[in-house]
Amino acid sequence: MTRQETDAAWYVLRVTYQRELPTKEYLDNLNIENFVPFRMVRRRHSNGRFYRAREAAVHNYIFVHSTKRVIDDLKKFRLPILRYVMFPDNGETRIMTVPEDQMQHFIAVAGSLDEQVLYLSPLDVDLSKGDRVRITGGVFEGVEGVFMRVKNAREKRVVVKIDGVVAVATASVPYMLIEKI
Fold it and tell me: How many CA atoms lie within 13 A of 72 on its CB side?
C-alpha cells in the first residue's frame, strides 16, 4: 500500500446531477468527514409566497476527508456517482487533494451562512496580484488568504482559493483586523 492510500487527506470529488446534499447526508451517516459549502437562497412557492432555502453554493463538488482506500471502496460499492477531480502535473494526471490548513481556512469562510461571502469561479480570481494576509479578529479570525479587490464588490476582501475548483471571499474586513504574512 502506498502512503496516499493510508494517509487521510481532503479529496475533491465530483457528484453528478447536483446530488451534493444526499451524498453529504450519506457520508455523515457513515461518519466520514466531508464538507459542502452552502448558501441561503430565496425561493418562491407555487402559491407565490417566498421562503429561504439552503442549497449547495458550489454545485457538483464535495470535499471528503478520508483515505484513498476508503474513497475507492465507497466509489466501487456504495456511491458510484463519486468521481475524483483530476489535475495535470508535469505531464501526469493526479487526483486533486487540498492541504489541511488551506481546507480549514476555506471551511472557516465558506461554512459561515451568516456572513456575506462571495463564491467565485477560478476565472474570476487572479491571486498572483494580492498580498497573503491573516485575519486577526472577528468572525474569520485566523483565516489566511489573499487580500484583493474582487469582481462586483466595492471593497477589498480576503479570498481563499482552491485551485481550479472554487474561491470564496469573506465579507468586508476592516484593515485593522488584517496583517500581512
Answer: 8
Contact 92, 52 (CB under 8 A): no
pTM for the full model?
A: 0.77
Looking at every residue in the chain, the average pLDDT score rounds to 85
Q: What is the 3-state secondary structure (H, E, C) of 44-99?
A: ECCCCCEEEEEEECCCCEEEEEECHHHHHHHHHHHCCCCEECEEEECCEEEECEEC
pLDDT tens, position by position, 8-37: 999 999 998 889 999 999 999 999 999 999
CB neighbours of residue 77 within 10 Å = 8
The residue assigned the cell 464538507 is 35
Among candidates 62, 58, 179, 71, which has minimal Cα distance to 118? 58
Q: Give me the phi and psi of 88, to 5 degrees please.
A: -80, 140
Which of 28, 29, 89 is CA-nearest to residue 62? 28
- Judge contact between 171 and 120, C-beta under 8 A: no
